[in-house]
Sequence to fold (309 residues):
Amino acid sequence: MSGEAPLIAAIEAGGTKFNCALGRGPGEILETVRIPTTEPKQTLEEVGRWLSLVKSRHGAFAAIGVGCFGPVDLDEKSQTYGYITTTPKPGWQNTDVLGGLKNRFQVPMAFDTDVNGAALGEYLWGAGQQKDPLVYVTIGTGVGGGVLVNGRLLHGLLHPEIGHMQVPPPKKSKAVMRRGQCPFHAHCVEGYVSGPAIAKRWGVRPERLPVDSPAWEEVGEVLAYLCMNLTLTLSPKRIILGGGVMEQEQVLSMVHGAFIKLMNGYIRQPEMNAKIGDYITRPMLGANAGLLGALALGRMAANAAAGRG
Ligand code: ZN
Fold:
């Protein structure tokens, strides 16, 4: 990226660690740090101190972007805007993530879900360039998705919770435990194919399941339903599937095969068949998607403030 791009502080707030960076884009990261997610006060204080430190080394940054695990409150008119709300993570319910940063740094801030951030990052710099609407889904410890439409991240009543989309129970499942593992829903995507759900249902951690395990066909089919429903509701130009579970190389082609069968020729576009590999793809930013996503959020805030000014 050019040196003209504004200097941004990026925070990828995750359930196990807060990844922070100071930079201008993927090719220009000046500093990074990993801060373990302990209890909120301590973690957020450490993040604030680190940002002050890098500010003293590199000068003022133009904005802060935060991509946060959730659920979060994204409604700027709400009293709890910038809060993590009902997370199952102990100690983190009703945590004001932005408040301390606002007291410390008087710069524009953007706050969004980690997956919305990743969607924006892939759109700007990765596998989603020129693809609008764009959906980014990560399948890992949980299943979450971000949506970009008309150049903006989709918020709404709350924010998309794509991972909890309902799907038919996998047919003739050979899993040790056939039922879905989500405590809220019997038949949602996350309950069938998140890493922990795979481990519970098949009795083996996903990374230890053999490549030819029937588990992977099932993961492919569940994700094909997810992609079909996304296609039919949002009509995206591309769907990006990332996260630890997708690191199993064989899964993506299984999703492609099952998706084509499920769509059954209903939508006549090359992306639904011959160009399926362009339509449902892997991310390009890899492990950096979350952090670069936060940076992308910060850049958006900086640009918006400059435009207004
Ligand atoms: Zn669920």
